Amino acid sequence: MIYLDNAATSWPKPPSVMQAVHEAMTLPLGNPGRTHHRSALDAASLVSDCRESLAELFGIANPLRICFTANATDALNLAIKGALHPGDHAICSSMEHNSVWRPLTATATRGVELSIAQADAEGVVDPESVRRLLRPNTKLVAMIHASNVNGAIQPIAEVGRIVREHGALMLVDAAQSAGSLPIDVDAMAIDLLAFPGHKGLLGPQGTGGLYVRDGVELALLKEGGTGSESNSPLQPEFYPDRLESGTLNLPGIAGLAAAVRYLLSTGITNVAAHEAELAQRLLASLRAMPRVKLYSPQESSCRAPIIAFNIEGWDSTAVAQELERRADIACRPGIQCAGLAHRTLGTQDSGTVRLSPGPFTTDQEIDTALEAIAELPRRSSV
Amino acid sequence: MVWRLVVFASLNQVALLKRDLYRDGINLEMQRTPQSLSATGCSYALRCPDEQVGLLLERCRKFAIQPGGVFEETEAERNSQRRVFAGDELDQ
């Protein structure tokens, strides 16, 4: 299989990730924070290792401000519903995934006002358009770092500075950028960072996290056992226990720790350069094909390794199915759970075909994919 | 040697401190706090030679961690401790 669906979930994973998950399932690994024996304490050390590695990757000074979640959607819901209260105003971009758009829309039914900063034709938001939308009661600006539809990178650092000057919170959805693009929460003025573990970070599915800047208060979506302050009926005030009720996904976190260590040793800039080169080759070759329409930003520096296209006369799903049938290519057609972004790009009815190479995609695989795609415009749609 | 037991609310805090000090060549023992010293319910502690308590408290400040208290082991048996500092008496 030629796997070009890394934006949905990355594959393959580094061998060290599989090894770490295997060990977490085979060696005695207890429930961290629940008891005294060595296997439980070892488990706590493993969890801390993962938190510390993530902190290093994202420039977070205090690893205890990272809370594990099941995925980025969980983290985004914690942040959005925890930060916003009736009477607040929130802003998002018109390129958001449903994991931001839907919870924000849900808060609107509970008295939160929502404004949308319109992106340009390539899907990029002008930071000044965010400034113009700010109000005295603006509490939160939520923005996707890189679009899962066409890869467009938003100017997070510029928007972050504007938001911080205003005194609101900056929430970044790093679903497509964590592990694929450099992120520094201080330099980018990020207050809340939501990330999945299983995409660019190369960890197992069922992992993710939320960084909460020191001093940011979030209302809770759940309470429960944390292994701390157990005589109290109230949730602990301190992090990460405050947001981490219930048993953690230890095998997943073990795999994620190994994955982040792999990325730290490889270097995010090296990973990003490899993926950008492959995406640029895809874009340049697709641009030269007849009847192919592209939707991703032309400039490599404005784009995560995601290329969106359609072929005139072809349904996007039919293209993806044909690529699988002809060359065993795995990609993703349709709306990609991002109706708002597709509306921005004018593809809400057709959807698009999305190609997303990863750190282990080879030049040969890109060549084969391009050859298979080049055949399609010459044929009628199936 | 005088040993102290520095008590924390959460194993997340203890694990981070232990690993941070270990990187500097200091290997402290992580353990569950005796229930008699754990005023808020379950908690965890680092067992620490007296001369390293200051360094440990420095790391607590680095990570904005408030210890629950420092106890001294008063006998050779490790199940007998007396309070040295309460958490709110520590310089945070």
What are the defining features of this structure?
heterodimer, A: alpha/beta, four-stranded antiparallel beta sheet, B: 92 residues, alpha+beta
What does this structure look like?
The complex is a heterodimer of chains A (382) and B (92). With 382 residues, chain A is an alpha/beta fold. Chain A is built from eleven helices and 13 strands. In chain A, helix 6 links the parallel strand 5 and strand 6. In chain A, 53% of the residues are buried. The model of chain A has no long low-confidence stretch (mean pLDDT 96). Chain B has 92 residues and is α+β, with helices and mostly antiparallel strands. In chain B, 24% of the residues lie in helices and 29% in strands. In chain B, strands 2-3-1-4-5 form a five-stranded antiparallel β-sheet, covered by helices on one side. Chains A and B meet through helix 2 of A and helix 1 and strand 2 of B.
Short précis:
Chain A is of the alpha/beta class and 382 residues long.
Secondary structure elements and their pairing?
The complex is a heterodimer of chains A (about 375) and B (about 90).
Chain A: E1 2-3, H1 15-26, H2 38-58, E2 66-69, H3 72-83, E3 89-93, H4 98-108, E4 113-117, H5 127-133, E5 138-144, H6 156-166, E6 169-173, E7 192-196, E8 208-212, H7 250-266, H8 268-287, E9 292-294, E10 307-311, H9 316-327, E11 329-330, E12 332-334, H10 339-345, E13 352-355, H11 363-375
Parallel strand pairs in A: 1-11, 3-4, 3-5, 5-6, 6-7
Antiparallel strand pairs in A: 2-8, 7-8, 9-10, 10-13, 12-13
Chain B: E1 3-8, H1 11-22, E2 29-32, E3 44-49, H2 53-62, E4 69-73, E5 81-86
Antiparallel strand pairs in B: 1-3, 1-4, 2-3, 4-5
